[in-house]
Amino acid sequence: MKVTVYEVGPRDGLQALKQPVETSTKIKLIDALYSAGLKNIEETSFAHPKLVPQMADANEVFRKGSVLIMNKRGYDRAVAAGATKFSIVFSPCETFNMNNMGKTRSEIVLMYKTFLDKVPKKNVRVYISMAFGSPYSGIPNISTLISCIRDAKMFGRTVVFADTVGAGTRKEVQQLAELAKNEHMKAALHLHHRGNEEQALQLIRAGLFSGIKEFDSSIGGLGGCPFTENSGANISTESLVRHLTAWGFNCGVDKAGLTNASKIAEEIKLNELKTVI
Fold this sequence. Notes:
This protein is an alpha/beta fold. The protein has helices spanning 9-13, 23-35, 58-61, 72-81, 94-101, 105-113, 142-153, 170-182, 197-209, 237-246, 258-273, and strands at residues 4-7, 42-45, 66-68, 85-90, 124-128, 158-163, 186-193, 214-217, 233-234.
């Protein structure tokens, strides 16, 4: 069975780093990921540079993949750079929405309606952040999750359930997969963990058994949300590809080909360590 690995390292992997990453290094990383066989890469974010300084060079970094946008200004910049595939985000947790976007979910959805109406739904992925629970508001109830999925349905065909703080369970993965299916949406998983990739891998197995065929990962395990305290790391692309291959799934990624991208990610991590040594 074909499974999609959606690489988010160049965006979600780098956005929270304190040490600046050179534009040339970001481009090398993206090129190395494509060379390894990855076809779906979230390359950058057109967020306000003051809010996410690491993404200030989005125009220079963008190659051909998808980008995260958070408002009309970001969308316009992305389109001017040549982007046609977009990620958007909101959450059942209103504290997260206010921290991340400065708006409530209803205000965010209304904002997206003003400029995404002509973008094909197949070109939009919708992240539901903290879909598995939030340290601010706890576990969202079913009606709230259904409402979020229906909001997502207005803009895209793929709803990405994000475990922003590594709180998910296998039962919740199964439940979210079923809710997406009921709304005729394609489900994907974006999993953070708190230092234990095995936890995330168990959720991926639960997702596979529930019919989910798309999983986000970050080269070298880079990542975390800059707007959420104690946001865990992303599952590494290396681990995800290795396990999917061992489980008999075809993800179209060359394990050996990831070596160059892995080296670049390690150099980025070493550079980041300079801020704490």
